[in-house]
């Protein structure tokens, strides 16, 4: 038997094969893609210049290229699945993103960090500025709207501090932390 060439596009006739063996057929040529809303074909790469070795990609460049390709594929698949292209809206939303430094000031102001810092500063300064004998019987509890609330352990010490030492304590605290932080001092037994 003679082997005759088959015309292109036609399946090969069964060649001489042993019984029970499968025959292989040539694949049909790929059909051209119909023009439509699908992704545009990638441009052909420029032929390499003779004598020049191809430039290898660095590891981080390769990983970035892979990530970009994956993102493009994901975006294309989502666009086809949704039936609408949301990429312009997503890009516009990314433009609305703000740096953390712009947001942080407002957050700290709402948390009143500066107020809490001044309150802890008053507590720290209390033991340094006030007479150790008085500090042993009185301690600052809170600071609200410029008023420092101090808890005193007994009535005799409360009377001593209010009658004789309240002006001195207020002046020392205002010198240490500022007049705007501590404007008044209120003493209570507790």
CATH architecture of the domain at 112-189: 2-Layer Sandwich
CATH class of the domain at 112-189: Alpha Beta
Query: Can you tell me the CATH superfamily of the domain at 112-189?
Result: DnaA, N-terminal domain
- Percent of residues in helices: 40-55%
Specify the structural class.
mainly alpha
The biggest beta sheet reads: 3 strands, mixed
Low-confidence stretches: none
Strand content: 5-15%
List the strand order in the largest sheet: 1-2-3
Topology as a string of helices (H) and strands (E): HHHHHEEHE
Query: Might you state the CATH topology name of the domain at 112-189?
Result: GMP Synthetase, Chain A, domain 3
The outline comes out as rod-shaped
Radius of gyration: 41 Å
Mean pLDDT over all positions? 76
Give a topology summary:
Elements: H1 59-82, H2 87-95, H3 100-111, H4 113-129, H5 132-137, E1 138-144, E2 147-152, H6 155-177, E3 184-189
Parallel strand pairs: 2-3
Antiparallel strand pairs: 1-2
Helix pairs in contact: 4-6
What's this, in brief?
The protein is mainly alpha-helical and 190 residues long.
Task: Tell me about this structure.
The chain has 190 residues and is mostly helical. Among the domains are: 60-95, no CATH class; 112-189, GMP Synthetase, Chain A, domain 3. The protein is 48% helix and 10% strand. The protein contains six helices and three strands. It has helices at 59-82, 87-95, 100-111, 113-129, 132-137, 155-177; strands at residues 138-144, 147-152, 184-189. The protein has a three-stranded mixed beta sheet with strand order 1-2-3. A hairpin with a 2-residue loop joins strand 1 (138-144) and strand 2 (147-152). Helix 4 (113-129) packs across helix 6. It is rod-shaped.
